Amino acid sequence: MPDLVAFRLGVRPGSTRSHAFALAPQLTLLAVDIDEEKRALESVALALLVFTPKVVLAHANTVLLEVGASTRLFGGLRALLSKVTSTVKGCGFTSRMGCAPTAWGGWLLAHARTRRVTRRVRIVKETTLVRVLDSLPVSLVPSAESHGNVFEQIGCATLADLRRLPRKGVARRFGPGILQWLAQAYGQAADPREAFCAPASFEARLELQARVDSAEALLFASRRLVLQLVGWLSAHHAAVSKFSLLLEHELAARHAPKTSTLDIAWAVPTRDADHILWLLREKLNQATLVAPVIEMKLFADQVSEHAPPSDTLFPMPTSDNESMAQLLERLSARLGAENVVQLVERDDHRPEAAMSIEAYQPAREAKSRRGKKTEKAKEPASEETEIEAEAEDAEIDESLELPDRAVPSQPRPCWILEAPQKLMLRNERPYYRRPLKLISRTERIEAGWWDGNGVQRDYYVADGDHGRMFWVYRERLSGSWFLHGFFG
């Protein structure tokens, strides 16, 4: 297929070599690589699976999409076609769009747009389809090239002229297949097609046309691979939490490695292309290329099932946990995982060990939530078991005399010191700037013997005579007093 400049000079598909060079002396002819063209078409089809599961590889390097059930999801036909065009452009290709109620009708409009014989690219009604297709030239028929200029000799210029010819004569001269093709194009016959099937595992390769030695250029090229990954994930109803980008380097130095690998991982599985590209950008900006890159390969390492978020009839102003997780992942990628921390609660009675600061790991929170849901989803007990449990509860209630009200727990301060501060004693009272008065009952904590940091303490709430409240304790063995926290 000639490019736009050659097309303007008069070069057309089917022109002889000498005629093409006569029209465009600076024309450059490229050898056709059927296998490479097929791989390129499959990569585009893989990226377009994000819009519909019915993607078909058609005649003359055409990709057909059945989008009847997807228009509302993507905001209407115009918005959907715009997103499809943007995706194809992101894969590194240009496209000519055609939309019609039939597959061959869309194919004809797309190729008519390529040959600049019509400006109509979208048809929704079947009545409009007949009128527009009748005006298209008969040279768009897929089998027209094999018949030479026979259509011109019999005075057949448009598809309407072809439809007016006697059916028996058309079948005898051009074969019965052209009648079946006309019926399918005009929606008068069924047109079953085999859909493109995404592979079981994802692996994409991209050979760069020039040496790349900058992170920004690598990100621009890797966008094609990410779009294919997102389409593959949509086809398998899955999400990814880790992938590997293999970089093939040019051997510029003797001791430079031939390949290098970038592992990009995050906690919450996703198939959002923008989020994946953002994380990849941060990883590439922090990486150092040992040599120029000439080829890239992308492998999906950790893939899991993905359930789309359910929508509600009346949206509520609740927090978006997924958006918060993505924000923290971006901060981790930008600042480093060790610089984004979270408070982790621990089952320990010692105040200084009941909470710790660790690197943010939302996967652990998701795991705990799944554990709770699993416990709630247990099968209900049988009727006999419930009766036995009720009987046991009745026996316990009869044997134990519980108080009417639960024993109140001791209050905890808003601020706990990182290390307890030792206090002096004056007149047998702990002293912090002034004598402290104990105003609460004793709370004894004895724990930590299992890790060698055992404590034996008696905690009190103390008053400093000016409205300030303190949390103090006395060591049971030494009798020393310590300040451990402040109340608001």
UniProtKB/TrEMBL annotation:
Give the region (Disordered) as residue ranges: 362-393
PANTHER family per record: BLR3025 PROTEIN (PTHR35369:SF2), BLR3025 PROTEIN-RELATED (PTHR35369)
Q: Could you tell me which InterPro entries the record lists for this protein? A: DNA/RNA_pol_sf (IPR043502), SulA_CellDiv_inhibitor (IPR050356), UmuC (IPR001126)
**Residue ranges of domain UmuC in the record:** 6-104
Q: Which domain of life is it from?
A: Bacteria
**Where is this chain compositionally biased, Basic and acidic residues type?**
364-381
- Protein's name according to its UniProt entry: DNA polymerase protein
User: tRNA-binding: is it a keyword of this entry?
Assistant: no
The processes (GO biological process) annotated in the record are: DNA repair
**Species annotation:** Candidatus Burkholderia verschuerenii
Q: Which UniProt keywords apply?
A: DNA damage
Biased region (Acidic residues) positions are 382-393
